[in-house]
Amino acid sequence: MPLFIHRPKSDISLLKNHVFSGKHAQLFLIFLGLVVGPAIASAKVRTFTEDALSVTTRQNPDYDPSGIRVGDFNFTPSISNTLKYNDNVYASSIEKVHDMIFTVRPSVNISSDFVRHELSANFYVEKGMYKDNDGEDYTDYSSQLNGRIDITGDTSMPISLAITRDHVRRGSPDEQANLRPTVFKLFEGTVGLAHEGQKIAVKTIAGFKRYVFENTVGTLGTVDNGDRDRNLYSLYTSVGLSPDAICAPFIYADIIKTEYDRGLDSDGFNRNSFQYETGVGTTLNFSDVTKATFTVGRLRRHMDDDNLKDTTGLAYAVNVIWEPSTLASFQLEGKRTMDESTLDGISGSIGSSLRLSMNYELFPNLFFNPYVGFIERIYEGLNDPKTHTWDAGIAATYKMNRNVWLGATYQYINQDEKEPSPDIDSYENNVFGVSMNLQF
Predict the structure, then answer these.
(1) Could you give phi then psi for residue 23, rounded to 5 degrees?
(2) Does residue 378 lie within any of the structural domains?
């Protein structure tokens, strides 16, 4: 078969409806221009049929797996094998250590095809093995169940349950003194009620999360991670116009109660907190080509311990999707959130992020996904230490056939310590990868 398959100019019958240094910045922007330019140049007025053929959602029967049909369920099993080169395994500014990492990840996705209601599940296990630094080896897994019970034509009850075993990636300030990866388990579930009528949309989601951290090995011996075990209780509510309208404004409220297992941690702090966010937003359907959602509100987090800093400030989120043609899709995402931290004297961190990504189909079996992002993180505490993190990269996917996909990736990360802190480090990191995905 030829390496690349050229799409006929007018035949769409095969498609199914359904952080930078100056040098790296210049290279990435040049590449982005080379890829984005032709995509924009080929943009045209889209017909209704073409609008249904989004590059991010459509399927091609010649190159996408059809799955295994069992009654009203479709099973899609796969196994991914990846080889990566990491030039800074420990995310350090000194004594950089490089290594090769091989990962294998079997997974299965299950989806229903009921007339009413919906049920889906996904499971995976990922084993990571380092060539020289076997202390970084890991085994992660996850199982997730999602469902929707249709009460009426406009009202439904979304439900989800998940169990995950994961490890904290290097580069997090909470991991600076650890010689081995920190492993944790996350148990989570949500239940809600959603109504979407012709004019009004109402949603209420109650959630629960439990984090359980395993002890690890640090520079001074065993690291007791019991200080990080906690429960999170959340309640989200929004009321507004139907999101199908050209302009659909809404109001929302998000409440989170965090309770740690230990009344006082090893530094003598009570890290329990109560957080709420309230605001307004709108969904804008500018056209068949551009859709956007914006929110802005007030974020308030009160710490039970008077020695830890409370937080009050602006919260925002933005999500813009632009599809100028059936070959290209752009997404701009931004948000400002509050995250947990167990650093001495730090109550948490405020992260402000912005990311631009692209999905570009060069051929029906060759896709490129470049991206660039920025995060400013301010740690709430003495002197308010701050970091700026840039990251950028690109992924290429070559679909040989339905069952075999090949991939190549590159990622660059630059974390810059803007305010001095003994717990935060600046570093640069380059990761190259190649993969083969087998699926059915």
Answers:
(1) -65, -50
(2) yes
**Residue 127 near residue 108 (C-beta atoms within 8 A):** no
Side chain identity at residue 329, one-letter code: S
Q: Which residues pair with 234 in a beta bridge?
A: 207, 256
**pLDDT of the residue at 22:** 46
Which residue(s) pair with 331 in the sheet? Answer: 321, 357
Token pair 């974020």: residue = 299
User: Does any domain span residue 148?
Assistant: yes
Q: What distance lies between CA 41 and its chain's CA centroid?
A: 30
Residues 239-271: tens digit of each pLDDT: 999 888 889 999 999 999 999 999 888 888 899
In a domain, 133, yes or no: yes
Q: Any idea which residue has 């951290």 for tokens?
A: 213
Residue 285 structural domain: 22-439
- Asked if residue 322 lies in contact with residue 330, where contact means CB atoms within 8 angstroms, the answer is yes
Nearest to 291 by CA among 260, 268, 324: 324
The two tokens of residue 238 are 């929004």
Identify the CA nearest to 216 among candidates 326, 270, 136, 301. Answer: 136
Show the beta-strand stretches assigned E in 137-272: 138-150, 155-167, 183-196, 200-213, 216-218, 221-223, 230-241, 247-260
For 273, counting Cβ atoms within 10 Å of its Cβ (0-12 exposed, 13-18 middle, 19+ buried), the class is buried
In contact, 82 and 102? CB cutoff 8 Å? yes
- Phi then psi for 29, rounded to 5 degrees? -65, -35
Q: What is the CATH number of the domain that holds 330?
A: 2.40.160
pLDDT of amino acid 104: 98
How far is residue 423's CA from residue 22's CA, in Å, rounded to a whole number?
A: 27
Q: Are 309 and 381 in contact (CB under 8 A)?
A: yes
Which is more confidently placed, 403 or 172? 403
Q: How many residues does the chain have?
A: 440
Burial class from Cβ neighbours inside 10 Å (0-12, 13-18, 19+) for residue 24 reads middle
In a domain, 16, yes or no: no
How many domains does the structure of the chain reveal? 1
Confidence (pTM)? 0.83
